């Protein structure tokens, strides 16, 4: 039974995935709700002064999914569709992601229901500072450590770190990750999610015997994750033939010139209107024939309606939750598609966030080479464990990744026991 406060398509989707895995792992009924339901949720109404002198009350949320293995960890999203249910589902996925990669964290996620594009820089700063202020009793280096997600970035983290530090009376860099390097951020964090996506795609290509030179890639979402993933795939020799953002998509079968596209985006803040490719819709983009399809935008993009039509060899989930369980069932009947599931595919971000937290706590910083080699070692281990589990147990890569993550949290909870 899903509590009404979380009830939403995305929270139901996360629960549906959990229930299937719990049946497979034969987790006793009595242990399931303890594993599944978020431990804590904070909802805040935040009055913020607008540039025109009026006041808007924004809603903000933070969900901490489990506290069994350490502090909680996860990004903060600024988007008009943010709800408590969405944040709860994303927090649950963070738990399985952190466990799959062996990080000493429970999952968390936060968000503010707002359109960051419609706010001035001053308004964004006031929303961020107010949100942080409201969360002060619930976050901290040993409690819960936010990071960037959709609609937030290094600047957002700098404001969060500053607001928290002002309250503490001293500088507390370890309260957030994904900060600017000049404030104790880690080298490589900004690029880590996209580079991790590209690394795992290269491992999947090795596994399937696909040559990167001349292979084609399609990327939905041209933000932090999608933009870096596209550039990394391009460097590996793939042609990026289609990309999109919230306003539309671009297609060029000869390969899009990403350096020129980046110049266009820097000027116009959108990929739309770039003259080196033809315009397509996001719906067309998802069914464009390619070797590698990277959904790196919103959740629930590959659904029962379009799953039979996608035409890729590798589906690399840069976004969280881009594929619904209905789509999963259809893709299961299409063994020619190799799925790198979200909690594995986009784990590079939280892994380097973990490195940033460790560096901040020790006040001892690593060079980029050390960060990246440690990142690839963790991703390699998670990839090998997932593919081995999938083959040995005859289940999909998503099922394997979720099983490994959920089983680890289950075992930890069993070992800690029940109080009183
Ligand atoms: N940042 C990180 O480290 C991590 C992020 N993720 C996940 O990756 C995904 C992307 O996050 P991130 O790159 O940080 O976010 P960004 O805000 O940097 O970029 C999001 C991109 O998606 C585009 N977009 C938004 N809505 C749509 C839509 N309906 N159709 C097509 N494109 C759309 C945005 O377009 P526009 O600019 O026009 O709004 C933008 O290009 C999210 O699911 C996030 O949870 C996962 C792990 C870590
Ligand atoms: O870097 C982090 O702590 C969290 C990244 C994130 O939000 C995610 O993996 O979805």
UniProtKB/TrEMBL annotation:
Keywords from the UniProt entry: NAD, Nucleotide-binding, Oxidoreductase
InterPro entries, A to Z: Aminoacid_DH-like_N_sf (IPR046346), Glu/Leu/Phe/Val/Trp_DH (IPR006095), Glu/Leu/Phe/Val/Trp_DH_C (IPR006096), Glu/Leu/Phe/Val/Trp_DH_dimer (IPR006097), Glu/Leu/Phe/Val_DH_AS (IPR033524), Glu_DH (IPR014362), NAD(P)-bd_dom_sf (IPR036291), NAD_bind_Glu_DH (IPR033922)
GO molecular function term, any single one: glutamate dehydrogenase (NAD+) activity
Residues the record marks as active site: 109 (proton donor)
Residue ranges constituting the Glutamate/phenylalanine/leucine/valine/L-tryptophan dehydrogenase C-terminal domain according to the UniProt record: 186-417
Species per Swiss-Prot/TrEMBL record: Prosthecobacter vanneervenii
Family matches, as PROSITE patterns: GLFV_DEHYDROGENASE
KW Nucleotide-binding (keyword) present: yes
Residues annotated for substrate binding in this entry: 73, 97, 353
Protein name: Glutamate dehydrogenase
């Amino acid at each position: 039974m899903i509590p009404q406060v979380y009830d939403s398509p995305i929270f139901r989707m996360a629960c549906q995935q959990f229930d299937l895995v719990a049946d497979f792992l034969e987790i006793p009924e009595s242990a399931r709700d303890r594993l599944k339901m978020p431990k804590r949720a904070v909802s805040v109404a935040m009055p913020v002064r607008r540039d025109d002198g009026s006041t808007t009350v924004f809603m903000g949320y933070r969900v901490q999914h489990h506290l069994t293995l350490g502090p909680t960890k996860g990004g903060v999203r600024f988007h008009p569709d943010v709800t408590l249910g969405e944040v709860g589902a994303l927090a649950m996925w963070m738990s399985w992601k952190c466990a799959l990669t062996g990080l000493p964290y429970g999952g968390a996620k936060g968000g503010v229901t707002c359109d960051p594009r419609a706010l001035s820089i001053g308004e964004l700063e006031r929303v961020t500072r107010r949100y942080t202020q409201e969360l002060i009793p619930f976050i901290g280096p040993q409690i819960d450590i936010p990071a960037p997600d959709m609609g937030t970035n290094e600047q957002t983290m700098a404001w969060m770190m500053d607001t928290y530090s002002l309250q503490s009376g001293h500088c507390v860099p370890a309260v957030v990750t994904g900060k600017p390097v000049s404030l104790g951020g880690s080298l490589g964090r900004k690029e880590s999610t996209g580079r991790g996506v590209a690394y795992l795609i290269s491992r999947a290509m090795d596994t399937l015997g696909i040559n990167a030179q001349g292979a084609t890639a399609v990327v939905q979402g041209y933000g932090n994750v999608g933009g870096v993933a596209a550039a990394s795939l391009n460097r590996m020799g793939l042609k990026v033939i289609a990309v999109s953002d919230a306003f539309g998509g671009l297609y060029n079968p000869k390969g899009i010139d990403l350096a020129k596209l980046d110049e266009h985006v820097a000027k116009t803040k959108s990929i739309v209107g770039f003259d080196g490719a033809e315009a397509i819709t996001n719906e067309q983009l998802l069914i464009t024939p390619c070797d590698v399809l990277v959904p790196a935008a919103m959740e629930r993009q590959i659904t029962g309606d379009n799953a039979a039509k996608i035409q890729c060899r590798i589906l690399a989930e840069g976004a969280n939750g881009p594929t619904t369980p209905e789509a999963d069932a259809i893709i299961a009947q299409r063994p020619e598609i190799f799925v790198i599931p979200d909690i594995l595919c986009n784990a590079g971000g939280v892994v380097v966030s973990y490195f940033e937290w460790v560096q901040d706590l020790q006040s001892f910083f690593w060079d980029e080479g050390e960060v990246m080699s440690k990142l690839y070692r963790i991703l390699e281990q998670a990839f090998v464990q997932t593919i081995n589990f999938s083959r040995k147990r005859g289940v999909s890569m998503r099922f394997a990744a979720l099983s490994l993550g959920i089983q680890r949290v289950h075992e930890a909870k069993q070992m800690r026991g029940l109080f009183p």
